[in-house]
Amino acid sequence: MDDRSDDIRRPLTQRIEVYAGAGRKQWPDDLKARIVAESLEPGAVVTDIACRHGCRPQQVHDWRRRARSGQLVLPAAAGALSFVPLVSESYPSGEDRLAE
């Protein structure tokens, strides 16, 4: 049963969440990076990913922003494409088409 509803006709649930502990949870950068990488997969839903990992969607969006600005380094995906620089040779003016 999904208890996240905006329907005002639905009765309120009697669910209470109690957070105990020493304040804010410290998320390691490597875990943040894995969660962000998961959120960037095609068809991924940030809210579902955040719920699965026990964080808030706002945190995931913040971590994604940090990854875009280079403040959070994402793990390299296995088999991911990488880019290499293109090197081109230029021929002297009269020989450019004759050499081919």
UniProtKB/TrEMBL annotation:
Pfam families the UniProt entry points to = HTH_Tnp_1
Q: Which InterPro entries match?
A: Transposase_8 (IPR002514), Trp_repressor/repl_initiator (IPR010921)
Cross-referenced PANTHER family:
TRANSPOSASE INSC FOR INSERTION ELEMENT IS2A-RELATED
Name of the protein described by the UniProt record: Transposase
Organism, per UniProt? Bradyrhizobium campsiandrae
